[in-house]
Amino acid sequence: MPIKAAAIIGAGIAGLTAALALARHGIASDIFEQAEVLTEVGAGLQISPNASRILDTLGVLVKLRSVWLEPEEVRLVSGSALRPVASVPCGKFARERWGAPYGTAHRATLQKALLEAVNSNELCRLHLGRQIDIRNKRALEEMAGREFDLVIGADGVWSKAHAMVPGAPSPLFSGNIAWRFSIAEAAAPGILDKTSVTAFLGPSSHLVCYPIRENAAFNIVAIVSGSSANRDWGAAGSKTQREQMLRGFSGWNATILQMLEAQQQASFWPLYEMKDGRWHNGSDTILIGDAAHAMMPFAAQGAAMAIEDAFELAGLLSARSPAQAFELHEKHRAPRIARLRQRAAFNQFAYHARGPIRLARDLVLSLRPPQSLAADMDWIYGYRAIG
């Protein structure tokens, strides 16, 4: 029997993408979100070709092209000496090599584009301000006034849909803290590149910055080791936490330190990842995106994996029962997620290297041309989701 309707918990990037992907196959959905208004927290977002290709298929990329930036390259730079270490070309190169663009935008920009597409699709219904505390899909059916063939939990690390999946993954504090803030282009120091994504590297810390064209600003994410496992994402850090963050950048270039010291309103984001666990209950409920496999941001693929999850799950559900689709989805997706976790762990090791390891890193990278480094990303950026 073909699937007619799905309930989706969470109206973030994963949930909205899932609704559009299901609608593409004629499957209706109700999206339940506890927030009264969708105001995406966070700041910038890198949308790599493996994700932008899917957004294009869903008719969303066209809404981003007029406002996002396609960076010329992704640069690795010494955080102390400001010496270039390596770079991977993007822009036209990305379109030609990976068949889709690489862009940067504010998270709210992507969420708005997805939301507009959902609101204009008659197969998608969004329910805001719904307090979700459920143990089975019957509670969702009563709220929506119709039956569902399945439930998709797309509600992030602190997922309430976990209650419907015995043995679901549980969050684990990574030992890293992200400090997020933005700086207007007019007030930004000259060392920030308006055309590229730049990762400044240092021992036990790194800093990523890139332009957000629609805001005429730079998005900055500073990542350091930390001991706090507070769940209060997006809150302004305490004085002690700010001092801890600044100690993580001791010895860095003076301009970068001055920029960090001036940020009184930087948001405090403890970084969590998911332990291994089941992504579905074998019958009517499945987890996608961060709810299933939150990972460290060292490969900049969190949002892209949520988009891939949603798109590929919808394709499997278009011709199979939920139970069959769930098994195939996890079998297909788990190896890719595992490989990306390994890549993120390697990037953390490389970015935060010190002493002889740092010197060896810089030497090896300096000997490799940009095209060779780009080839290392083919399995990520060149991936063509099945949907």
Automatic annotation (TrEMBL):
Keywords per UniProt: FAD, Flavoprotein, Monooxygenase, Oxidoreductase
Indicate the segments forming the FAD-binding domain, all copies. Answer: 6-320
- Any keyword Flavoprotein? yes
A single Gene Ontology MF term assigned here is: monooxygenase activity
Instruction: Cite the InterPro entries for this sequence.
Output: FAD-bd, FAD-dep_Monooxygenase_BioMet, FAD/NAD-bd_sf
State one Pfam family annotation: FAD_binding_3
- Identify which cofactors the protein needs according to its UniProt entry: FAD
Q: What protein name applies here?
A: Salicylate hydroxylase
Source species of the chain? Rhizobium hainanense
